[in-house]
Fold this sequence. Notes:
Elements: E1 4-8, H1 16-23, E2 29-36, E3 43-51, H2 54-64, E4 68-69, E5 72-73, E6 75-78
Antiparallel strand pairs: 1-3, 1-6, 2-3, 4-5
Amino acid sequence: MNKKLYVGNLTEKVSEDHLRSNFSEAGKVISVTIIRDKFTQQSKGFGFIEMETEDGAEKAISMFNKGVLDGNTIEVNEAKPKKESGGFRGGRPGGGGFRGGRPGGGRY
C-alpha cells in the first residue's frame, strides 16, 4: 500500500495544521498538502497526507474515512499515482484561441 493518502470533501476552513493534528493520532505524519486554486489560494476541497508507515496509513483510512470533519463527511483513501502528461491531448493539432487557430472570424 502507498503511504500517501487522498483526503476529499474538505471545507475551506480546514488547514494543513488541522489535518496534521488529526491524522497524527493514526501515526507519524510526514507531510500535509491542501490543494489550492493558484489565483485565489482558496482550498479546492481536497489534499494529500503522507504517513511515515503503511500501518499508519491503513489506520488513518480506517479511523477517518467517512468521518466528519468541520461538518463534512470526508473521504480518505490511498492516493493514486499522478498520471503522466504527454503534452498533446488529441483532437486537432495547432492553434488555440476561440476558433482553434483557423483564420477568419465570421460564422461557420
